[in-house]
């Protein structure tokens, strides 16, 4: 028995020496210890996901039927992971197994030298990142990165010609030489939320006229918003209505990557005028005298 124990101990020492020697050689070659450990899961709670969308189809009975879900996660270093699953009920295991890394160039545009850069941000700001909700359908097209760059360019232009009813822009977060986020003013709630939770103290005419003034100012710069709706209008602490989400804002006549209406292919003032009329009808159940 003593001989067997000594041989077992000797074998164990040999394995340890072999393993240690190989670790040293791998480290010298640039392969570190993490090669030998199981990576920790990226997502520890479904609440950590940046986006989570269910996609439905219409079945033969005319009812919506679950098809699949898509989701994304962004690390503190701004590395993006996206995934999809056919399972209706997602678990952390399914999410972590489905997430795959996304190349920076697919979602983050290179930062032009003239872009305003913000190195530190306070919690009072709203950081808008790339539109990862659309990654599943736009994968490989670089349109998400292109859209983020276009929005940054429009915000730069507006900030040089500000208006109290247009979103306040402070600059871009830049990481690895790419725009990873737009730093915007944060507002209490959307007009949609305000109307849903009670609008007793909201002066609809005053708010709408201010919004219309902001849109007309945008048009004076040769730009159309192309996605005016209650969820893209914020209500400030002083009840001012502020138009946000410049993701579809483009000069008149330019092609749209994303728009409030899938039938709209180019930027147009008429899109905004029609949207303002529809908004007023939604707010008051009557048509506006003039837009």
Automatic annotation (TrEMBL):
GO biological process per UniProt:
intrinsic apoptotic signaling pathway in response to endoplasmic reticulum stress; IRE1-mediated unfolded protein response
Looking at the record, the residues that make up the Protein kinase domain are 60-291
**Entry coiled-coil feature ranges:** none
Q: Which Gene3D superfamilies match?
A: Transferase(Phosphotransferase) domain 1
Query: Cross-referenced Pfam families, in alphabetical order?
Result: Pkinase
Gene Ontology MF term list:
ATP binding; protein serine/threonine kinase activity; RNA endonuclease activity; unfolded protein binding
* Top-level taxon in the UniProt lineage: Eukaryota
What is one cellular component GO term in this UniProt entry?
A: IRE1-TRAF2-ASK1 complex
InterPro entries given in the database record: IRE1/2-like (IPR045133), Kinase-like_dom_sf (IPR011009), Prot_kinase_dom (IPR000719), Ser/Thr_kinase_AS (IPR008271)
- Name by which UniProt lists this protein: Protein kinase domain-containing protein
- State the species of origin: Rhizodiscina lignyota
